[in-house]
Structure formats: structure tokens, C-alpha cells
Specification:
Elements: H1 3-18, H2 24-38, E1 44-51, E2 54-62, E3 68-70, H3 74-82, E4 86-88, E5 106-113, E6 119-127, H4 138-151
Antiparallel strand pairs: 1-2, 1-6, 2-3, 4-5, 5-6
Helix pairs in contact: 1-2, 1-4
Amino acid sequence: MNQEEQYEILLKQAELLIENETDQIANMANLSALLMMSLENINWAGFYLYKEDQLILGPFQGKPACIRIPLGSGVCGTAAATKRAQCVKDVHQFPGHIACDSASRSEIVVPILTADNRLIGVLDIDAPIPDRFEETDIPFFTKLAELIGRHSGK
């Protein structure tokens, strides 16, 4: 099975996991667990929620993380401020990278938006190896973020 097929199966599992649940925190908790158990070579999977003009740690799987991230700071803050996915092959080369876990080497962060383009937060996946993520991974993680966005505010 190639990566695209694996992503399609994972997306279907995510849809089934949250389809009848309206609680955003519960859905994010289950999705972070699903990602952590399903993706290879990652060391952190979770969410930051947009509150009080900053990102605040939400449900996740992995080592303890930074609790608050200002918009525009680090990979997560940049994704939130620009409302654009960030795929970073080597976090040590990213200007202003925030090292919550020194073992993380690469990262992909996708903003979570409502249908009317309001920022809810970000989906953040870290890996302990460089070059874990490719630009071709962005559509899959974007679909997951859109799934959360559709289930927010129900």
C-alpha cells in the first residue's frame, strides 16, 4: 500500500471516529491518538487552539509541550498568522523555531479554519528525523484540519 492509500484509509478512520461527536476537545483528543498510533516516525501529534490572540496547547500525544505560542512565532504561530500550512524539513533552519521538544527535527503544521475562514487553531505533527514531511503531505493534513473545522461549533 502506498502512502496516498494509507492517508485515504486514515482520513476515513478519522471521519468515522468523529462523525457523531460534537465536542471539539474530544474529537481532537481522539484524532491526535489516531495520528500517533498510525503514522510512522513521528514523536508528537496534536493541536493548538486559537484563544486570546495566541495559540494555547490543546489535546495531543507526545512529550509535554509549550503551552502558549504567540501568533507569528515558530512554525505553529506562523501557520496560524498566515493561515497557510508550513512544511519544515529541518526545524533548526526555521527562523524563530520554538524547541518544545529538542528531539523534534521536522514538522508540519496546518491551520484549522471554519467555513467562513475564522482561525480555530492548528494541527501540529513533529518528527524526530529531518525530511519526514513533504509538500505532498500537506493535502492530507489539510483534509484532517478541514474535518475538524467542519465539526467545530456544531
